[in-house]
Write a structure and sequence with these properties.
Oligomer: single chain
Low-confidence stretches: none
Distance between the termini: 42 Å
Strand content: under 5%
Radius of gyration: 21 Å
Shape: elongated
Helix content: over 70%
Structural class: mainly alpha
Number of helices: 2
Largest sheet: none
């Protein structure tokens, strides 16, 4: 018995593909806008926590404020989109 699902041709109409592409692009732009807003909003707090940790440890070897804010935005933004 052979597996017929591994080599199936795409038989969907050509007009539905651009609609999916448009939706994906729209979501991508919306995701980017939300990401940028959250990144800018978390930057001051990330700078504060980075400075406090640098003062306590007397070292600047940990992640900087930009990396901390980027990480927080990467965590928070998908949470917003998963609520849809």
């Amino acid at each position: 018995m052979s597996d017929m699902t591994s080599d199936m041709m795409d038989t969907s109409p050509a007009r539905t593909a651009p609609a999916r592409e448009t939706v994906r692009r729209k979501n991508s732009v919306e995701f980017t806008v939300y990401f940028a807003i959250i990144f800018v909003a978390t930057l001051p707090l990330a700078t504060l926590t980075w400075a406090m940790q640098a003062i306590r440890s007397r070292s600047f070897t940990s992640k900087g404020p930009m990396a901390r804010a980027w990480t927080q935005a990467r965590i928070i933004t998908p949470m917003i989109f998963s609520a849809y």
